[in-house]
Amino acid sequence: MKVADRHYRTIWPGEDGRSVEIIDQRWLPHDFRIERIDNVPGIATAIRDMWVRGAPLIGVTAAYGVAIQMADDPSDEALDAVWETLHETRPTAINLRWALDEMRRVLRPLPLGQRAAAAFRRAGEIADEDVGLNRNIGVNGLAIIKEIAAGKKPGEPVNILTHCNAGWLATVDYGTATAPIYLAVEEGIPVHVYVDETRPRNQGAQLTAWEMAGHGVPHTLIVDNAGGHLMQRGEIDMVIVGTDRTTANGDVCNKIGTYLKALAAHDNGVPFYVGLPSPTIDWTVGDGLKEIPIEQRSGDEVSFVWGKTASGEIAQVRVSPETTGAANPAFDVTPARLVTGLITERGVAKASREGLRALFPERGRR
Ligand code: MRU
């Protein structure tokens, strides 16, 4: 998407053929910084410490991490070691394992001398594929927005609530939850987005709001606890979120707080949709509550908030007493029964084993 009139993806290969460049998301919305990374520990840090984040982007970054390793040492041992190192950076988003498995599947049969070039090629293809998947999610989600818009008075916006950042910054481009929104804006359909701030790391306030502002999407930032109230008052027409892992049964794991939004939506008859590219489906898992590992992050993310001070410094401030401990589960699971539909690249699926199997017949068997 565009930043200051230039088109950017969130990640691209370095010109030297041995590195990758990323938008370093830690500084947004205050500062737009690009980092070049040319070693595996650097890639692991970028994923773990969330210089890049969002399930699809984590996967693509890991794929480039494998490629960087292959440029240095293309041996089987190095391939297995980079798989392990990057796999343990973040446990919940399945795209990470998907991308690492895919890279190893492609590289393992190749002679050592061909592995580095093949790895950069495949990482680039995975990045391109992500853009295509999101574009198709956009088309399929746009049909839903259009249907809601058709029931409104001319000029009245479709009010959409979103949680966390499932925007272009969480993917290579377009985003999953945001792709239908961007297409709606392109087509001139009036939309208005309620952006959950998404504590503790404020991906909504810092990233989604920055995206919406940058692309001229009318939006309003709300605290995480406001969504239920707005739904009770009829001010939300639909919810669209992303997902870090969706099970073969249609249970949706996403940023902490998503479940509460789904409960409120269900109670108020507000449709609750999930933008779901197929690499985010974990076909090996049925019950999301029991089987998905939930990342536990540092309590410091709860006890402190980052922001820009009046003097222009980007800094963190403590919001709780120094002696108060904090728990920080980073994701939760929304049971399939609370999900209206899964917007995939192939169409909108019912959140159920049958629904997913109908769209992905080649993958549906356990
Ligand atoms: O902890 P994060 O910022 O990586 O979490 C991101 C999310 O939860 C997104 O909603 C999810 O990855 C979907 S991204 C298209």
From TrEMBL:
Q: From which source organism is this entry? A: Allomesorhizobium camelthorni
Instruction: State the protein's name.
Output: Methylthioribose-1-phosphate isomerase
Single annotated GO MF? S-methyl-5-thioribose-1-phosphate isomerase activity
* Location of the active site: D244 (proton donor)
Q: What is its EC number?
A: 5.3.1.23
Q: Which NCBIfam families does this UniProt record tie to the protein?
A: eIF-2B_rel, PRK05720.1, salvage_mtnA
The UniProt catalytic activity note for this protein reads:
5-deoxy-alpha-D-ribose 1-phosphate = 5-deoxy-D-ribulose 1-phosphate; 5-(methylsulfanyl)-alpha-D-ribose 1-phosphate = 5-(methylsulfanyl)-D-ribulose 1-phosphate
The kind of enzyme this is, by top-level EC class, is: isomerase
The entry's family comment says: Belongs to the EIF-2B alpha/beta/delta subunits family. MtnA subfamily.
